[in-house]
From TrEMBL:
<feature type="binding site">
    <location>
        <position position="242"/>
    </location>
    <ligand>
        <name>Mg(2+)</name>
    </ligand>
</feature>
<feature type="site" description="Important for catalysis">
    <location>
        <position position="134"/>
    </location>
</feature>
<comment type="similarity">
    <text>Belongs to the isocitrate and isopropylmalate dehydrogenases family. LeuB type 2 subfamily.</text>
</comment>
<dbReference type="GO" id="GO:0005737">
    <property type="term" value="C:cytoplasm"/>
</dbReference>
<dbReference type="GO" id="GO:0000287">
    <property type="term" value="F:magnesium ion binding"/>
</dbReference>
<keyword id="KW-0028">Amino-acid biosynthesis</keyword>
<keyword id="KW-0460">Magnesium</keyword>
<feature type="binding site">
    <location>
        <position position="218"/>
    </location>
    <ligand>
        <name>substrate</name>
    </ligand>
</feature>
<dbReference type="InterPro" id="IPR024084">
    <property type="entry name" value="IsoPropMal-DH-like_dom"/>
</dbReference>
<feature type="binding site">
    <location>
        <position position="127"/>
    </location>
    <ligand>
        <name>substrate</name>
    </ligand>
</feature>
<dbReference type="GO" id="GO:0009098">
    <property type="term" value="P:L-leucine biosynthetic process"/>
</dbReference>
<dbReference type="Pfam" id="PF00180">
    <property type="entry name" value="Iso_dh"/>
</dbReference>
<feature type="binding site">
    <location>
        <position position="218"/>
    </location>
    <ligand>
        <name>Mg(2+)</name>
    </ligand>
</feature>
<dbReference type="InterPro" id="IPR023698">
    <property type="entry name" value="LeuB_actb"/>
</dbReference>
<feature type="binding site">
    <location>
        <position position="246"/>
    </location>
    <ligand>
        <name>Mg(2+)</name>
    </ligand>
</feature>
<feature type="binding site">
    <location>
        <position position="93"/>
    </location>
    <ligand>
        <name>substrate</name>
    </ligand>
</feature>
<feature type="binding site">
    <location>
        <position position="103"/>
    </location>
    <ligand>
        <name>substrate</name>
    </ligand>
</feature>
Length: 350
C-alpha cells in the first residue's frame, strides 16, 4: 500500500495556525489506502530560546528520511533578524538543494485584485533557490566605525543557472502558451546578468517551441501591475524572485493565497512546501491568518508526490471557496473547515 512520510515544521507566528489547516485538508483528501505518517519538528523561536539551536545535523539527517516537508513560517521579533531565516529556512533550502522554487500566481474568478480591468493572471515564477545574494558570501569591515563597509556578494554558477533555466523551459513547454520570460538586471549587474542571459539563450535553442522574452526586473514590476497577462513562466534569480512573488501575491488576491514549493527535481532530497508569506507576527494568535496559501502548498506537495487527482481536488476546493467569498470575516479554522467540506463534497461528485 502507498504511504507518505511527511515532516512537519510548523515554526513561528501564524505558522502553526496555518499548518494545522493544511494537515486537516491533507487528511481529508487522501484515499483511505494511503498511509500518512507525519513527524513534527520543534524548530523555530521557542527552540532557539530554549537551546540556542536552529537546526542540528541530527535533525537534518532525520528530515532527509521523509518524502516531503511541510513548513509554516519561521521568524520572530524576539529573535535577531536572520538567525532563524538563515539558520533554519535557508539552511534547509541549501542542504536539500531546492534549486527550483516554484511559485504559481493565479487570479481566481471573482477574487479581489487592486488591478484595473481584472486581467487574466495565470503565471508561475521559477525562482532559483540555492544561489544569488542568499548564499551569505560577504561580510563587514571596520565595523562600528564611520568607514564601515558591508558586502553581500551574489554567487551565480553556470551549473546552478543552467539547471533552473532548463527546468523553466521544460515547464514552459508543457503549458498551453509556451512562453518563458527571463527577469534580471543585466544592464547593471553585468557579471551575473550576462551569465543568466547567455545560458538562457543557449538552452533556448533546444526549445524552439518556447517563445522567449527578457525583462529588466524594474520594468517587470511595471508589467506585473499594468499587463500581468503577458506572463506565462518567469525564471529569475533568488532575490528578484523573492520580491516579485510577494508582488504577484498582492495582485492575485493577497499574500494569504500564495503557495510555493522548494523543489529538488533530482529527487535526491525531500522537497519542501510552504506558503510564500512569513510568520506575520502582527496577526499571530488572532485567528486572522488565511490558511489558503498553506492549503495550496499542500496541493503542490500532493502533485509532487504523484497524487495529481488529489492535488486537483484541493485546488478546486480552494477556487470554489475563494470565488464564493463575500468579504465577511472567517477565522483561520473556519476557512480550513470550509475547505475540508468542499474537498469531501468534491470526492462525492467527482
Ligand atoms: P509576512 O509575510 O509575515 O507579513 C507581511 C504582511 O502580510 C503582514 O501584514 C501580515 O499580517 C500579512 N500576512 C502574511 N501572511 C498572511 C496570511 N496567511 N493571512 C493574512 N495576512 C497575512 O512578512 P514580514 O512581516 O516581512 O515578516 C515577518 C517574519 O516572517 C520575519 O521574521 C520574516 O523574516 C519572516 N518570513 C518568513 C518566511 C518563511 O518562513 N518562509 C517568509 C517571509 C517572511
Ligand atoms: C520567502 C521569505 C524568505 C526568502 C526569507 C524568510 C528567508 O521571504 O520565502 O519568500 O527571502 O526566501
Ligand atoms: Mn519572501
Amino acid at each position: 500500500s502507498r504511504s507518505i512520510r511527511l515532516a512537519v515544521i510548523p515554526g513561528d507566528g501564524i505558522g502553526p495556525e496555518v499548518v494545522a489547516q493544511g494537515l486537516k485538508v491533507l487528511g481529508s483528501v487522501l484515499p483511505s489506502d494511503v498511509k500518512l505518517e507525519t513527524r513534527e519538528y520543534d524548530l523555530g523561536a521557542r527552540r532557539w530560546h530554549a537551546t540556542g539551536e536552529t537546526l542540528t545535523g541530527v535533525e537534518l539527517d532525520s528530515l532527509k528520511q521523509h518524502d516531503a516537508i511541510l513548513l509554516g513560517a519561521v521568524g520572530d521579533p524576539s529573535v535577531p533578524s536572520g538567525v532563524l531565516e538563515r539558520g533554519l529556512l535557508l539552511k534547509l533550502r541549501f542542504a536539500f538543494d531546492h534549486y527550483v522554487n516554484l511559485r504559481p500566481a493565479k487570479l481566481f474568478p471573482n477574487t479581489a485584485t487592486p488591478l484595473a480591468g481584472r486581467p487574466d493572471i495565470d503565471f508561475v515564477v521559477i525562482r532559483e533557490g540555492t544561489e544569488g545574494p542568499y548564499v551569505g558570501n560577504g561580510g563587514t569591515m571596520r565595523t562600528g566605525t564611520p568607514h564601515e563597509v558591508a558586502t553581500e556578494v551574489s554567487v551565480n554558477t553556470a551549473l546552478g543557472v543552467e539547471r533552473v533555466v532548463r527546468d523553466a523551459y521544460e515547464r514552459a513547454r508543457s503549458r498551453p502558451r509556451r512562453k518563458l520570460t527571463l527577469v534580471h538586471k543585466n544592464n547593471v549587474l553585468v557579471h551575473a546578468g550576462h551569465l543568466w542571459k547567455n545560458i538562457f539563450d543557449r538552452v533556448g535553442q533546444e526549445y524552439p517551441e518556447v517563445t522567449t522574452d527578457y525583462l529588466h526586473v524594474d520594468a517587470a514590476t511595471i508589467f506585473f501591475v499594468t499587463d500581468p497577462g503577458r506572463f506565462d513562466v518567469i525564471v529569475t534569480d533568488n532575490l528578484f524572485g523573492d520580491i516579485l512573488t510577494d508582488l504577484a501575491a498582492a495582485v492575485t488576491g493577497g499574500i494569504g493565497l500564495a503557495a510555493s514549493g522548494n523543489i529538488n527535481p533530482d529527487g535526491t532530497f525531500p522537497s519542501m512546501f510552504e506558503p510564500v508569506h512569513g510568520s506575520a507576527p502582527d496577526i499571530a494568535g488572532t485567528g486572522k491568518a488565511d490558511p489558503t496559501a498553506t492549503v495550496l502548498s499542500v496541493a503542490l506537495l500532493l502533485r509532487h508526490l504523484g497524487f495529481e487527482a488529489e492535488a486537483a481536488r484541493v485546488e478546486t476546493a480552494v477556487a470554489e471557496d475563494v470565488t464564493a467569498r463575500d468579504g465577511s470575516f472567517r477565522t483561520t479554522d473556519q476557512i480550513g473547515d470550509a475547505l475540508v467540506s468542499r474537498v469531501l463534497a468534491g470526492s462525492v461528485t467527482g
